[in-house]
Design goal:
DNA-binding; 567 residues; globular; alpha+beta
Length: 567
DNA sequence: GATTATAGCGCG
DNA sequence: AAAGCGCGCTATAATC
């Protein structure tokens, strides 16, 4: 049953949409005052309801705060962004663009939030009808169009499920032990300075650096001053990047690299970060579903997707609980094998280590070469080791490499490419198109032509990677959506034991996501079955997307007390 | 003083 | 080994 949620002049309202609905305006609106009423007032089995609403990120945190869990939804704003490229009728409607992040606001249901756009119930219903029309192949459509629509429907439900997962993860939070974090900072940097300034140990490293360069004092935090100091000391570098410095043999390099590492830790994840982002033993990042063009998630604030490995030991399970940490092994090459139906690459992916599979298949001689070659194919390496190994990959896996090559060529022509489920790449900017056009005219200089070709290749590398990164993101969404459902019933002997409409903090739940990695916080007794659910969900995600493609989606799964225990 | 841009580094 | 994708964040530097 589809139930639309929006606002009317009396406040929050719902409308039941009938299956037979074919565009008539008749629907029954139901005024609600309390969150529980939304579910209870309908008198339907909560498990069968799919909530149609403007924006999960705006409404679901308030429901969760009130203890209400939602089984399924359709996030109109996220879905609009995906569909806008497929159906002109949905293009450029400002009402459905992505919302700007709201300033901090304690969520309470039904309160008046200044600046929040409250989508009218009638408009929610109207937009849903528009989207549904875009998802149905016409009566004269061929198989290709029917498949396209079916994939889009899967993509939209996966994206919407992702929005639920993101809100629930923010609700639960990643367990985070501020004391462990503080100890780690103190050990590396020295005690927290009371009135700002550099911690002792960091200052000592800075002093060592200045002394070793022997060119007088300067501020090592300033790239300009640092570069000048390096030059004065006779060190010939044209930037202060780590990898360039690593090649220099000079007594100042060791303290310099140490200083960069420590000052980075202080600035990005020091005590200020701890104060801002960790409350009540939980780190609660703001996930932005579909925040990256490829469909990957982003975060706003907290840098959840860049948690330094150094600090992961601070993430500790509650007493009596475990962290179940799982990451998909070589996800992108496996996704490529599946979407390209490359049986050879699928065979190499059969074991737990795809890169070793390349070695065993005689394609390359070492695992390191396999990795650099595969990444080169996904990213479009032309020179260096990755570029050199490309021909071997192309002859061993013509279908897989052909798929990314085609995507690159399309991008170079300025065309749109699509992920497996149909998320479309953006068009290159107007300036790009103008330069290509100009380079093709008679007036272009050799330099213009060279720049145009360079830019074309740059865009081709982007579209090449887009199709794989984006499809991997789709797999990850399906993985989490399946896992979320499996975790709900974990440890329940009977289905009636599970309250699908209530958020239950005593159950195993997702607490972290990082592109191809998840963490589940689970009662210790359920950790093993949570791990099994993660593995099952990975297989199911592959099946859901690609059918019987022969590609295994291998995982590394660890049951630990601390995230830092995972290599 | 408030803004935008850039360098650099963290993550996948 | 240091080339080749996607990001967010924080500092300093540049600009208004």
């Amino acid at each position: 049953m589809d139930v639309a949620v929006g606002y009317d002049d009396g406040g929050l309202a719902t409308a039941v949409l009938t299956d037979a609905d074919d565009g008539h305006d008749g629907y029954q609106a139901l005024r609600v005052r309390q969150p529980a009423d939304i579910a209870a007032g309908l008198g339907a089995d909560i498990r069968t309801v799919r909530w149609i609403w403007a924006d999960t990120a705006a409404i679901y945190p308030r429901l969760l705060a009130a203890g209400v869990r939602v089984e399924r939804c359709h996030d109109l704003r996220l879905c609009h962004a995906i569909l806008a490229g497929h159906d002109n009728r949905l293009l450029d409607d400002p009402r459905w663009r992505r919302r700007e992040p709201e300033p901090d606001h304690e969520p309470t249901l039904l309160d008046d939030q200044p600046g929040e756009d409250r989508m009218a119930l009638a408009e929610v219903v109207a937009e849903y009808r528009r989207q549904r029309r875009a998802l149905v192949a016409g009566p004269t459509a061929g198989d290709e169009d029917r498949i396209r629509c079916a994939k889009l429907r899967l993509l939209l439900s996966a994206e919407s499920a992702g929005s639920l997962v993101a809100a629930e993860m923010a609700f639960h939070g990643l367990p985070w032990d501020a004391e462990v974090h503080d100890r780690q900072l103190t050990e590396l940097l020295g005690p927290r300075p009371r009135y700002g300034g550099r911690p002792d140990k960091l200052q000592a490293v800075a002093d060592r650096l200045v002394a070793a360069l022997e060119v007088g004092s300067f501020n090592p935090d300033s790239p300009v001053e640092l570069l000048h100091a390096l030059h004065r000391a006779g060190i010939d570098v044209h930037s202060t990047r780590k990898w360039e410095l690593q090649r220099i043999d000079h007594p100042a390099i060791e303290p310099l690299l140490e200083y960069k590492k420590l000052s980075r830790l202080l600035a990005a994840n020091g005590w200020a970060w701890l104060d801002t982002w960790v409350k009540d033993g939980r780190f609660r990042p703001d996930y932005v579903v579909g925040g990256v063009v490829t469909g990957r998630w982003a975060t706003s604030g907290g840098g959840a997707l860049q948690l330094p490995k150094q600090l992961r030991r601070a993430s500790r399970a509650d007493p009596g609980w475990k962290l179940v940490v799982a990451d998909a092994a070589q996800l992108e090459p496996r996704v490529l094998a599946a979407m390209a139906r490359d049986d050879q690459l699928a065979t190499a992916a059969r074991g737990r280590d795809l890169y070793q599979g390349l070695v065993d298949g005689g394609v390359v001689d070492t695992r390191a070469h396999a990795k650099v070659a595969m990444l080169g194919a996904l990213y479009g390496a032309t020179t260096g080791q990755g570029g050199q190994l490309m021909p071997r990959l192309v002859s061993a896996y013509p279908r897989a490499t052909g798929l990314v090559e085609d995507a690159a060529r399309s991008g170079e022509r300025g065309e749109i490419v699509s992920t497996f489920l149909g998320r479309r790449s953006p068009l290159p900017p107007d300036s790009w198109r103008e330069l290509q056009h100009f380079a093709g005219s008679g007036d272009a200089s050799a330099d213009d032509v060279r720049r145009a070709r360079q830019q074309a290749r740059d865009w081709g590398r982007f579209t090449r990677n887009f199709v794989v990164q984006g499809t991997a993101a789709e797999w990850a969404l399906c993985w989490m959506a399946g896992l979320r459902q499996r975790l709900l019933v974990l440890g329940s002997s009977t289905p009636d034991d599970v309250d699908h409409g209530a958020i239950d903090c005593g159950r195993a739940h997702l607490v972290y996501f990082l592109h191809d990695e998840v963490i589940v916080h689970a009662p210790a007794a359920l950790a093993e079955s949570a791990a099994a659910a993660i593995v099952e969900s990975a297989t199911a995600a592959g099946q859901l997307l690609f059918g019987d493609c022969g590609v295994e989606f291998a995982l590394d799964v660890d049951i630990v007390d601390s995230y830092g225990e995972v290599s």
